[in-house]
Amino acid sequence: MDFKEKGLLFVLSGPSGVGKGTVCRALRERGTDLQYSISVTTRKPRAGEQDGVHYFFKSKEEFQAMIANHQLLEWAEYVGNFYGTPLQYVQDTLDEGKDVLLEIEVQGALQVKQNFPEGIFIFLVPPSLGELKKRITNRGTESLKLIENRLNAARDEIEMMKHYDYVIENDQVDCACDRIEAVVVAEHCQQARIIEKYKRLTEVD
Ligand SMILES: Nc1ncnc2c1ncn2[C@@H]1O[C@H](COP(=O)(O)OP(=O)(O)OP(=O)(O)O)[C@@H](O)[C@H]1O
Ligand SMILES: Nc1nc2c(ncn2[C@@H]2O[C@H](COP(=O)(O)O)[C@@H](O)[C@H]2O)c(=O)[nH]1
């Protein structure tokens, strides 16, 4: 039987400012074998953010057209802006046998879980709420009002971590990366065992 192994889908969530982007950048620099989906958003670019690199920046109308045309794997409204994952990229990359990592907020992650239960869901937590506030404030990319909105959303998001397979603390970026890499290795071992079992069960004498 021709059994083509697909890539694994990892979903990384966590409250704004916990360090998802920082940890993903560090994983890239380490050369961890993951592909990163670029999301679509209606949020305005921050200083230094480039279209097609950090996000695909779209108008509300363009975003709604993508929803209507079933071009998004998931989407959500988060603190006044829309965010979504382009479906085609994820499908194609998994079909090529490569692992994909989505860095998305919890409403979107739960949609992925419904439609793609074999995904692996990781929730990144800060050492404390005080440290979260310090990180998002020191980043200096949002106004005080927006920081407050994001911290309010964080309380509800943290409540949702019970729906995730793994909860990883981002105390130090390097340690958080080590833990995520350990999850990737463990999930591949698990997949290899399942495939082996499936092959044995379907073998014809
Ligand atoms: N382990 C860490 N220790 C100290 N500071 C950290 C750590 N991880 C990230 N930071 C800092 O915290 C701030 C927020 O990080 P980052 O932008 O990666 O968060 P995020 O979760 O991607 O946020 P958002 O969801 O808003 O995009 C950055 O200034 C970053 O340098
Ligand atoms: N549901 C989705 N959430 C996404 C996506 N891309 C990013 N995000 C999350 O949005 C918030 C805010 O991001 P920011 O860049 O404005 O700070 C954060 O939690 C991201 O992880 C997506 O495609 N879908």
Structure in a nutshell:
The chain is an alpha/beta fold.
Topology:
Blueprint: E1 9-13, H1 20-30, E2 35-36, E3 40-41, E4 56-57, H2 60-68, E5 72-78, E6 81-86, H3 87-95, E7 100-103, H4 106-115, E8 120-125, H5 129-139, H6 144-159, E9 166-169, H7 173-202
Parallel strand pairs: 1-7, 1-8, 2-7, 3-4, 8-9
Antiparallel strand pairs: 3-6, 5-6
Helix pairs in contact: 1-7
The structure holds adenosine-5'-triphosphate and the ligand Nc1nc2c(ncn2[C@@H]2O[C@H](COP(=O)(O)O)[C@@H](O)[C@H]2O)c(=O)[nH]1.
Distinctive features:
205 residues; alpha/beta; Rossmann fold; Guanylate Kinase phosphate binding domain; four-stranded mixed sheet; globular; binds adenosine-5'-triphosphate; binds the ligand Nc1nc2c(ncn2[C@@H]2O[C@H](COP(=O)(O)O)[C@@H](O)[C@H]2O)c(=O)[nH]1; Guanylate_kinase_CS; Guanylate kinase; Guanylate_kin-like_dom; GMP kinase activity; ATP binding
State the helix count.
Answer: 7
* Mean of all residue-level pLDDT scores: 95
How many distinct beta strands?
9
Shape: globular
Supply the CATH class of the largest domain.
Alpha Beta
Bound molecules: adenosine-5'-triphosphate, ligand LQESDW3C
Kindly estimate the percentage of residues that lie in beta strands according to DSSP: 15-25%
Q: What name does CATH use for the topology of the largest domain?
A: Rossmann fold
CATH superfamily assignment of the largest domain?
Answer: P-loop containing nucleotide triphosphate hydrolases
Number of structural domains: 2
- Going across the biggest sheet, name each strand in turn: 2-7-1-8-9
Q: Are there runs of 5+ residues with pLDDT below 50, and where?
A: none
- Which class do the helix and strand fractions yield? alpha/beta
The major beta sheet can be summarized as: 5 strands, parallel
CATH architecture of the largest domain: 3-Layer(aba) Sandwich
Nearest-angstrom radius of gyration? Answer: 18 Å
Helix-residue proportion: 40-55%
SSE ordering? EHEEEHEEHEHEHHEH
InterPro entries: GK/Ca_channel_bsu, Guanylate_kin-like_dom, Guanylate_kinase, Guanylate_kinase_CS, P-loop_NTPase
Keywords: ATP-binding, Cytoplasm, Kinase, Nucleotide-binding, Transferase
Catalytic activity: GMP + ATP = GDP + ADP
Function: Essential for recycling GMP and indirectly, cGMP.
